[in-house]
DNA sequence: AGCACGCCGACT
DNA sequence: GTCGGCGTGCTC
């Protein structure tokens, strides 16, 4: 007898363990760990993951697995173990860990159906009766529209109705019907004579098979080619001459797209030195972490491509992570161009179904390389030869919901399991990674030169306070104006970055200082030109733009801050002849809009590309010779100890967009704090100094990489409750952490209220604290009941990326 | 998380 | 006396 340990799809602390089930006789040979199954769980049915098969169990009254969902495991043994590791590292539920590894399409959906099992339809109340006229099963949702649950319940108790719990899949494999000939062509010819002469279409179909020497053909194609109808085909199938089969097909997001084949480029001296140790590690199957620190344009990608080539030639597989790849279609081109059909692409721009199909290609070992965003790190490869994380410093590698994992940590874990190298690449590495490379934990590979030997574009810092004193009240400094006009005349292109994060346009009364805030969140509402609305970015609350101040009824109510829309308006005024493309959430939320806009810009159908963060990454257009940063310092004022680091990274990256090819580039950075070191140092491309300066600060303030951080956030509609719970947590932590661990708080979160819930937090700074995970878990367990019954929420983020 | 069970108040 | 509220505890 075989028993299966199953992790059920119920996200709760009490169910966060394996439950044992009997494996029915007929599936004993089929089952294996990593498969999804449907199991009875209490009165209902749920999906679950088999994590173990065993011949023994402690539990006596076992139920049986009711269904198999997979015929091949969707989780490899390695991934099952990785799930265990993830739950420990991020304090999440086991199911959540497994679900994070799989495409969303594979998450189960649950529905309840009511079936009539009585004798007389008349026995049902008249409200319910009509539903069952002509059918036995009805969706509970439909009946609930007219009847109360209690009414239905009564019928269940007296045996007229029953509830059936159904588990459904979100998306399924897309299939086409394929028609095959059952026998050889000579046998087909013989069949011809047996077919009645008046069945002309049947003859046509058989002839079609014979003359075209067809083994199989999609049904649709066969019908259109022979002008036959499907009944004719059915007749032949029932005669056994033809066979029908459902064949899985892939929704290919890159269908109909040609990718120009590219060949390896010769590597320069630096690149060769960088690739050497990587190739060595691949060859010798060594787990090593490399930090490839290479300035923008130094040819990191070519090093990736050639290392991958080596991995694939050895018959192994590779994962390449890129930050939100839809932002860099150019990147997809480079990988598809070099490795063609060996590549699967996974990113947020794909539909659920497309993502599922790409994942299936990996599972079925039809590809050897996956290029994708964060979650692609879980690609179910079994012979990994290398993992690459490009733009290692990008914050999108950290998932901001449970499980709060960092792709870099997962990559290193998997690298160890597979004995393969992990390559982290960046022009502006995180302090954490660079510090590790200094300590020799990671091996540092440096690329100092740009491949085309071009210098980095020269950077001019403009003091906007000075501009204001000189009477320039616009958002463009005189210098930036000059240069934009100049580019326009020379038919060169400009990229304008509006660094908006943490600083959106809000409405303020000039007389009394009143700011329109969200009634549910402690945050000011954001002004949206479209529809003249004020919107809350946290809960979605909307209200119309007021004409007068709600507080003092003054008419001097204005919006402050600058949105891309407003910049665009002003640009149109001062440079009427310029063609502008604006890229922000509003213009890119449609699928493919992003790529379209970029293509348009690339084809020089516009002179200026104006956008937020999203334009800072990976764009490479030869005619861009000017980059303007409208307000460099907005990010600096955020309550985030990484603010300076992030500002430096952003400025360096966006500067790298200029002058990548023949034409030299220039950068203008506008700021109100020109003296700030991260602005100064980014203008000199001086990462080393930034590293030293910032490390000093992190040391004095006990921040990463000197200390690890854990952030506990408590929220509840009642502020008193929040404060007291956070206080309790802090006290408990103080009593149970290591000596050199520091506890800060309780304090109100930077956004003290979201969706009518008050938020408090406490920060744990620790160096080595082996029991901290256990202590934190105990806290969660202690409040578990209140978290389910009372509206309490406690979230723990280990190594948070943001303090918000 | 869901769902059943079980124990109390307010109604036919 | 029952209906219907919510606290409690279990799910292989």
Automatic annotation (TrEMBL):
Enzyme Commission number(s): 5.6.2.4
MF annotations from Gene Ontology: hydrolase activity
UniProt remark on cofactor binding: Binds 2 zinc ions per subunit.
Domain of life: Bacteria
Known cofactor(s): Zn(2+)
Residues that hold Zn(2+) 2 according to the record: 518, 521, 536, 539
A Pfam family matched in the record: Zn_ribbon_PriA
Binding site for Zn(2+) 1: 509, 512, 549, 552
Span of domain Helicase ATP-binding: 281-447
TM region(s), chain numbering: none
InterPro entries: DEAD/DEAH_box_helicase_dom (IPR011545), Helicase_ATP-bd (IPR014001), Helicase_C-like (IPR001650), P-loop_NTPase (IPR027417), PriA (IPR005259), PriA_3primeBD (IPR041222), PriA_3primeBD_sf (IPR042115), PriA_C (IPR041236)
Claim: Cell membrane is one of the keywords in the record: no
Keyword vocabulary terms for this entry: ATP-binding, DNA replication, DNA-binding, Helicase, Hydrolase, Isomerase, Metal-binding, Nucleotide-binding, Primosome, Zinc
Reaction(s) catalysed by this chain's protein: ATP + H2O = ADP + phosphate + H(+); Couples ATP hydrolysis with the unwinding of duplex DNA by translocating in the 3'-5' direction
EC main group: isomerase
Domain Helicase C-terminal, chain residue ranges per copy: 544-698
Family: Belongs to the helicase family. PriA subfamily.
The protein's assembly and partners: Component of the replication restart primosome.
NCBIfam families to which the protein is assigned, alphabetical: priA, PRK05580.1-3
Function field: Initiates the restart of stalled replication forks, which reloads the replicative helicase on sites other than the origin of replication. Recognizes and binds to abandoned replication forks and remodels them to uncover a helicase loading site. Promotes assembly of the primosome at these replication forks.
Protein's name in the database: Replication restart protein PriA
Gene designation: priA
């Amino acid at each position: 007898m075989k028993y299966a340990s199953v992790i059920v799809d119920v996200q709760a602390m009490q169910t966060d363990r394996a439950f044992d089930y009997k494996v029915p006789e007929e599936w004993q040979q089929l089952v294996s760990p990593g498969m999804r199954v449907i199991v009875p769980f209490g009165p209902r049915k749920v999906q679950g993951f088999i994590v173990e098969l065993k011949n023994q169990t402690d539990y006596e009254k076992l139920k049986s697995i009711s269904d198999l969902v997979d015929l091949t495991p969707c989780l490899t043994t390695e991934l099952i173990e990785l799930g265990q590791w993830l739950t420990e590292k991020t304090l999440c539920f086991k199911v959540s860990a497994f679900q994070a590894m799989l495409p969303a399409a594979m998450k189960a959906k649950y529905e309840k159906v009511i079936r009539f099992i009585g004798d007389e339809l008349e026995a049902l109340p008249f409200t319910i009766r009509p539903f069952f006229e002509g059918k036995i099963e009805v969706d509970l949702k439909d009946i609930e529209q007219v009847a109360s649950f209690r009414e239905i319940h009564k019928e269940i108790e007296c045996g007229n109705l029953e509830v059936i719990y159904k588990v459904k899949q979100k998306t399924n494999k897309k299939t086409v019907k394929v028609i095959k000939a059952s026998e050889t062509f000579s046998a087909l010819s013989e069949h011809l004579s047996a077919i009645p002469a008046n069945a002309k279409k049947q003859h046509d179909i058989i002839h079609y098979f014979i003359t075209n020497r067809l083994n199989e053909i999609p049904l649709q194609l066969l019908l259109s080619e022979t002008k036959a109808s499907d009944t004719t085909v059915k007749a032949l199938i029932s005669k056994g001459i033809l066979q029908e089969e459902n064949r899985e097909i892939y929704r290919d997001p890159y269908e109909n797209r040609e990718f120009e084949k590219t060949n390896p480029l010769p590597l320069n001296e630096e690149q060769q030195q960088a690739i050497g140790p990587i190739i060595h590690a691949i060859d010798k199957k060594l787990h090593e972490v490399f930090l490839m620190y290479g300035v923008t344009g130094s040819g990191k990608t070519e090093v990736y491509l050639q290392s991958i080539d080596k991995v694939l030639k050895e018959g192994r597989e590779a994962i390449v992570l890129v930050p939100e790849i839809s932002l860099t279609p150019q990147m997809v081109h480079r990988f598809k161009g070099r490795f063609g059909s060996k590549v699967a692409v996974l990113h947020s721009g794909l539909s659920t179904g497309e993502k599922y199909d790409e994942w299936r290609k990996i599972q079925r070992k039809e590809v050897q390389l996956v290029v994708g965003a964060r979650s692609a790190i879980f690609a179910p490869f079994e012979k990994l030869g290398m993992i690459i994380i490009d733009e290692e410093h990008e914050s999108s590698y950290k998932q901001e919901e449970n499980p709060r994992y960092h792709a870099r940590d997962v990559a290193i874990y998997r690298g160890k399991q597979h004995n393969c190298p992990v390559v982290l690449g960046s022009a502006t590495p995180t302090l954490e990674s660079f510090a590790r490379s200094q300590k020799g934990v990671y091996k540092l590979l440096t690329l100092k030169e740009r491949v085309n030997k071009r210098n980095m574009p020269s950077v001019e810092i403009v003091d906007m306070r000075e501009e204001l004193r000189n009477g320039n009240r616009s958002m463009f400094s005189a210098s930036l104006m000059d240069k934009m006009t100049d580019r326009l005349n020379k038919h060169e292109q400009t990229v304008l970055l509006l660094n908006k994060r943490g600083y959106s346009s809000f409405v303020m009364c000039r007389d009394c200082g009143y700011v329109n805030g969200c009634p549910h969140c402690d945050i000011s509402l954001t002004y949206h030109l479209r529809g003249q609305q004020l919107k809350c970015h946290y809960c979605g609350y909307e209200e119309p733009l007021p004409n007068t101040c709600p507080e003092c009824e003054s008419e001097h109510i204005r919006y402050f801050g600058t949105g891309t829309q407003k910049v665009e308006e002003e640009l149109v005024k001062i440079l009427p002849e310029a063609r502008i493309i604006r890229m922000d959430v509003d213009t890119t939320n449609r699928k493919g809009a992003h790529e379209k806009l970029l293509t348009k810009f690339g084809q020089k159908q516009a002179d200026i590309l104006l956008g937020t963060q999203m334009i800072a990454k990976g764009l490479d257009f030869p005619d861009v010779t000017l980059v303007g940063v409208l307000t460099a310092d907005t990010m600096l004022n955020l309550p985030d100890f990484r603010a300076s680091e992030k500002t430096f990274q952003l400025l360096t990256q966006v500067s790298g967009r200029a002058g990548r090819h023949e034409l030299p580039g220039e950068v203008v950075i506008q700021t109100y704090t020109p003296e700030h070191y991260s602005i100064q140092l980014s203008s000199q491309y001086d990462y080393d100094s930034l590293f030293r300066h910032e490390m000093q600060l992190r040391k004095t303030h006990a921040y990463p990489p000197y200390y690890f951080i854990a952030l506990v956030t408590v929220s509840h509609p009642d502020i008193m409750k929040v404060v007291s719970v956070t206080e309790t947590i802090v006290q408990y932590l103080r009593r149970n952490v290591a000596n050199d661990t520091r506890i800060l708080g309780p304090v109100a979160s930077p956004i003290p209220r979201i969706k009518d819930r008050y938020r408090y937090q406490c920060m744990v700074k620790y160096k080595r604290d082996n029991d901290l995970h256990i202590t934190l878990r105990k806290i969660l367990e202690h409040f578990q009941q209140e978290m389910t019954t009372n509206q309490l929420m406690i979230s723990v983020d280990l190594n948070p990326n943001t303090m918000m």
